[in-house]
Amino acid sequence: MEAPLDAAAAGAADPYLPEEEDPEKCHAVRSSLWEVDSLRAHYCPTVASLASLFAAPMTHATQPIPIEPLLGMTYRSLAQLETRKRLRSVPLNARPPLTPLCGDDGRKLAGWS
Questions:
Q1: For 87-110, how does the pLDDT look when each residue is reduced to its tens digit (9 = 90+)?
Q2: Residue 81 in contact with residue 46, Cβ under 8 Å?
Q3: Is residue 58, in this structure, part of any structural domain at all?
């Protein structure tokens, strides 16, 4: 992965060396967390909420986040978790129709008499 263009334009220098194969020499630990920040807008709510944990400032008083339950997570388990969630409400129609078989403007739809 490469750093986003706006980070380079802002003068942010990312020390990560993607070409380096040795994990100790690639400086991944010193790299910025722009990847995690971009995950805050992920389409999957679980991924977005997990990434948001890193948005809050961490101090010595910050409670540790147990990551053990997350280590075994796979695409399949994440999909199963999402499909088991109950929706509070399911939006079926943004606006109720004025009359049956009519469009939003009240005129009958084409082909219906």
A1: 777 666 666 666 666 666 666 666
A2: yes
A3: yes
